[in-house]
Design brief:
- The protein is built from seven helices and nine strands, in the order H-E-H-E-H-E-H-E-H-E-H-E-H-E-E-E.
- The strands form three sheets. A four-stranded parallel sheet has the order 2-1-3-4, with helices on both faces.
- The longest helix is centred in the first third of the chain and has 13 residues.
- The C terminus is likely disordered.
Length: 202
């Protein structure tokens, strides 16, 4: 294609009609990578990219061509009208899976698609895309979710999805993820409270 959106649509055209489809924003990488790891578990299908968290005529045309049996939207906040447009064009009601950030979204997808914590877990940094992208085939081979982690700890949501892990794949090694990133839960910072004098306490 002429850009990432056109390329995603062209790839979608190589899948048989009726394949499940995932949708994620093409303006950043985490949601699309997590979506790509989930589609094989759904039966194998393409990931369509959008310009932000909104419906577009291009997306509608791609859905109409794909005739998907299911639509998984990964990440973001979508309006009811956009979701309705996706339903109208695809013929199925989409499932939206999203968290408060990229880490929580990866955990939410793992819970939705794998049904809960799994014995095998794949961790990748949420800071850059290369390791998680390289890990998508491993996710398929091991039937394991990709969970995004911080360098020295994992968020509460990610830790919950790694609760029964017995086999861990750390993508990229300790240069990007220390051993703690696969086992230690990040501390929860106190909320910021506004004071009448204009100061903040932590």
């Amino acid at each position: 294609g002429t850009d990432r959106y056109g390329t995603a649509r062209a790839i979608a055209g190589e899948f048989p009609a009726g394949s499940p489809v995932a949708i994620s924003t093409g303006t950043d990488f985490p949601d699309a990578l997590v979506a790509a790891s989930a589609t094989p578990k759904l039966g194998g299908g393409p990931v369509l990219l959008t310009r932000g968290f909104k419906y577009s005529p291009d997306l509608g045309d791609a859905l109409a061509e794909s005739l998907p049996t299911s639509v998984l939207i990964v990440g973001g906040t979508w309006s009811k009208s956009d979701l309705s447009s996706i339903t109208q064009k695809s013929g199925v009601t989409p499932t939206l899976v999203s968290g408060k950030d990229r880490y929580a979204t990866s955990a939410a997808v793992a819970k939705q698609i794998w049904g809960g914590p799994t014995p095998t877990v794949i961790y990748a940094t949420g800071a850059t895309y290369a390791d998680a992208m390289a890990g998508v085939p491993a996710s398929t081979a091991y039937s394991a979710p990709i969970l995004l982690s911080k360098q020295d700890c994992r968020t509460k949501e990610v830790a919950e999805m790694g609760a029964v892990q017995s086999r861990v794949l750390n993508l990229g090694g300790t240069a990007v993820l220390t051993a703690n990133a696969c086992s230690l839960t990040c501390p929860v910072l106190p909320s910021v409270v506004s004071q009448s004098g204009g100061f903040y306490r932590f």
